[in-house]
Specification:
Blueprint (H helix, E strand, L loop, with lengths): L1 H15 L6 E4 L12 E6 L7 E6 L2 E7 L15 E6 L7 E7 L5 E5 L10 H8 L20 E6 L8 E3 L5 E2 L13 E2 H17 L15 H13 L10 E4 L23 E3 L3 H20 L3 H18 L10 E2 L4 E2 L6 H15 L2 H10 L13 H8 L4 H21 L13 H19 L3 H14 L25 H6 L12 E2 H7 L19 E2 L14 H14 L6
Helix pairs in contact: 2-15, 3-4, 3-5, 3-15, 4-5, 5-6, 5-7, 6-7, 7-8, 7-9, 9-10, 10-11, 11-12, 11-15
Length: 570
């Protein structure tokens, strides 16, 4: 009887569907924890208000309802005139379910106790494959051994101009190791530090989530990867007046398709060196947190080495002859230009305070403390600084709250229907994941804050399919809707699926249009249908704006998945 009734319901729903209407369902295809919000989006060019929907399990209806009024019309975040939600958050029992409404293919989803735990280490797989100067990538031989004797370049005039020249007299430094930043083979110290720092944060939240690393280190995989980054950071300040901010330069981009161990530039990749407080603060912060973490594991030698270097770099950064920042200027864009070092220096001071209990560092951190930011990313460590200061400084706690309130306001006023917390940029998804992590951690440590938790889970859903294009932005062949084409010569030439890479996601249309001469995107690409005047995404291996995977985003993804796997009501 129940089966016949369900068939009758489906037939009636089909009769109720608007003729010739386009209707697309968008939901989190990675699954839901029992207490996690469960909200599906129906995108349509016809009004669905009042249309019925049902959720079934093993053929039996367990939830039903009707779509309410459209949450928003066509605009910056959706090209559809009607965008309706269906909320089935009340479902909590583990199992497989199907969402059904007339005019659309059924949407299947799973509720499980810990749906994200299996994915926690996936971004580490891609990060390991991005290693430089290591035989332990699991994919290819050691690459760029010539970085061990890299020629030093120094700023050519004002560092604010982004121009570089060979040092006089000529000299070299050991810059072997680290990670390649993205689809190219350049290494940026700021990003190395941010990556190592966030991997350490992720481990400290729930160590038991991580398996032993392959090889003989005996470390959890996340710490094995973090240590690879920390060992590179140990090399970037070889003497009092030298600090490496970047290895290789824009020449990397004119070499064509090649594997890193077959790079003709090997042996002559420059080490760009400047006493940049942005880079020195970030490096000191990562090494200090590394010292504390490895010390707690009983690895006294690592603790001592990282601690000494963290203090050495931080102390040198505070001297008068250092500069706020340095970067390379390229014809396409400035390479990771961050003009303000106060956030990195504040985080460094707080990590040294946590490591040493020396209140001098705490007072220095209060002096450096940055304002509330508008984004979270490789150059915006503001929330980390203010979150660390918050237990010691009421003003910092207020700045943290102000920053989070800005993201919530953006969600409420300009983020519908997806709950986006900031604007489209190059690497939008990485920024949104970073903001989501900041929101979740703020709610956990200074909560309760339902709006911050809602922001976080909204970006989880967005990452795994509840977005215009209906794709998972984390490359994972176990997900039926995963993106499949990464901008990467390594995966492209070796014909390997880039498991664990996190796409950069949609970008701003204006910049994407300006860069479009570099892309090979067919006019018939189906993703055109879901792009908007503000935001653009293509699953295309030539689209480096949408489909690169940066090392900082990989570390943020690990933290993102750990936060989704912590115990609690969600």
């Amino acid at each position: 009887m129940g089966r016949h009734l369900n068939l009758l319901i489906l037939a009636l729903l089909a009769l109720a569907a608007p003729l010739h209407a386009e209707l697309f369902l968008r939901w989190n295809q990675a699954g839901y924890a029992p207490g996690q919000p469960k909200v599906l989006l129906a995108l349509s060019d016809a009004d669905l208000a009042g249309q019925a929907w049902t959720v079934t399990r093993a053929g039996a209806t367990v939830r039903h309802g009707t779509f309410g009024p459209s949450t928003t019309g066509a605009g910056d975040h959706t090209p559809f005139a009607y965008n309706h939600t269906a909320d089935f958050s009340a479902l909590r029992e583990a199992g497989d379910y199907t969402f059904i409404t007339a005019g659309a293919a059924p949407a299947t989803f799973r509720i499980a106790a810990a749906p994200y735990e299996r994915m926690v280490s996936l971004p580490l797989l891609h990060l390991r494959r991005a290693r430089s100067g290591s035989p332990d990538t699991g994919l290819r031989p050691l690459s760029h051994p010539g970085d061990a004797d890299a020629p030093v370049f120094v700023p050519d005039g004002d560092p604010a101009n982004g121009q570089w020249k060979p040092a006089e007299p000529a000299r070299t430094v050991d810059a072997l190791g680290g990670w390649y930043d993205a689809g190219d083979y350049i290494k940026f110290t700021l990003n190395q530090a941010a990556t190592a720092y966030h991997l350490l944060l992720a481990y400290r939240l729930k160590p038991e989530l991580f398996a032993k690393a392959p090889g003989g280190s005996g470390l959890p995989d996340v710490l094995d990867e973090a240590r690879h980054g920390l060992e590179f950071l140990m090399k970037v300040h070889p003497d009092r007046d030298t600090f490496i901010i970047q290895v290789a330069n824009a020449e990397d981009h004119s070499q064509g398709l090649r594997l890193p161990h077959q790079d003709k530039l090997d042996g002559r990749r420059p080490a760009l060196c400047a006493l940049s407080r942005v880079h020195m603060g970030a490096t000191a912060a990562a090494l200090a947190l590394g010292a504390r973490t490895f010390g707690e594991l009983g690895r006294a030698d690592d603790m001592a080495r990282y601690s000494v270097m963290a203090r050495k770099i931080y102390t040198r950064a505070r001297e008068a002859d250092t500069v706020p920042t340095a970067f390379e200027r390229d014809k396409v864009n400035d390479f990771y230009r961050d003009p303000d070092p106060t956030d990195q220096m504040a985080v460094a001071a707080m990590e040294l305070f946590a490591l040493t209990d020396d209140e001098t560092y705490l007072e220095q951190a209060k002096a450096y403390a940055p304002p509330a930011a508008k984004e979270v990313g490789w150059g915006d460590w503001n929330w980390l600084a203010n979150a660390a200061l918050a237990p010691h400084d009421a003003a910092a706690k207020q700045r943290l709250r102000d920053e989070m309130a800005g993201y919530v306001q953006h969600v409420r006023e300009r983020g519908a229907p997806w709950g986006l917390p900031s604007r489209y940029v190059w690497g939008s998804l990485a920024r949104w994941v970073g903001i989501a992590n900041a929101a979740r951690e703020t709610a956990r440590t200074h909560g309760p804050a339902p709006e911050l938790d809602a922001l976080y889970w909204g970006i989880v859903d967005y990452t795994f399919g509840r977005n215009n294009w209906g794709v998972s932005f984390l490359f994972d062949e176990q997900l039926p809707n995963t993106v499949r084409q990464l901008y990467s010569p390594v995966y492209r030439m070796l014909k390997v699926f880039p498991t664990g890479a996190l796409s950069e996601g949609p970008g701003g249309r204006k910049l994407h249009d300006e860069l479009s001469k570099w892309f090979k995107i067919s006019p018939s690409d189906p993703f055109h249908r879901f792009n908007t005047p503000a935001g653009v995404f293509f699953d295309n291996e030539t689209d480096f704006m949408c489909q690169e995977a940066t090392i900082t985003a990989q570390a943020d993804a690990v933290l993102f998945l750990v936060l989704a796997s912590l115990p609690g009501k969600n």
